Amino acid sequence: MLTLEVKARDAAESPEELRKRGFVPAIFYGPKEESTPIAVEALRLQHVWKEAGETTIVVLKGVGSEKDTLIHDAQFHPVTGKLLHADFYVIEKGKKVKIKVPLEFVGQAPAEKMGHIVVKTLHEVEIEVTPQELPHTLEVDLSSLANVGDHIAASQIKLPGSASLITHGEEIVASVKEFKEVPIEVAPAPETVIIGEEEKKEAEGGEAPAEEKKE
Prior knowledge:
The protein folds into two domains: 2-90, CATH 2.40.240.10; 97-177, Beta Complex (RNA Polymerase Alpha Subunit, Chain A, domain 2). The longest helix has 11 residues, at 42-52. The termini are far apart. The chain contains four helices and 13 strands. The chain is flat. 13% of the residues lie in helices and 38% in strands. Strand 4 (58-61) and strand 5 (67-76) form a beta hairpin.
């Protein structure tokens, strides 16, 4: 289980000052938790974020009792990619949580081997599940897609035992479309016209050479 040591944040200290000292300003809140500002060691938080994302429980220690949380939001610097702020949602004990879980596509569709295209239209689904069975990702097996028109609906995704699907079950997750080649039209080359010297001079605004007089 992932844990984070946190400390109460001094309201007098600005976020910029915290970051200079190697900490990230954050906050935790929940149905039975007041919104509480905290500070988290930056390198440790960066490591936990990469491992947990938004779908793995992170236990906060250091401010009151231990708290099971989910990282609900993380803000990053647009250039450096460093974490600037994080929100932790405290899970209410004994309650299920609603969460959007990323889909992980596995297997190869036989239809692709035949040259057709597999279109992936959903990349996450929302479920309600007990904290103990929170999945990091949900697998979608593409090996059942053999022919044009075959598809996988959200209701076909295998969920943990305690989970129920909130996303509409008929939503299409992936489907097979026929591959059709579109002919490329090539414009005909411009016709080459050869003109004589006289015509050339006339076209350039000059005069054609006078014919020599016969004796």
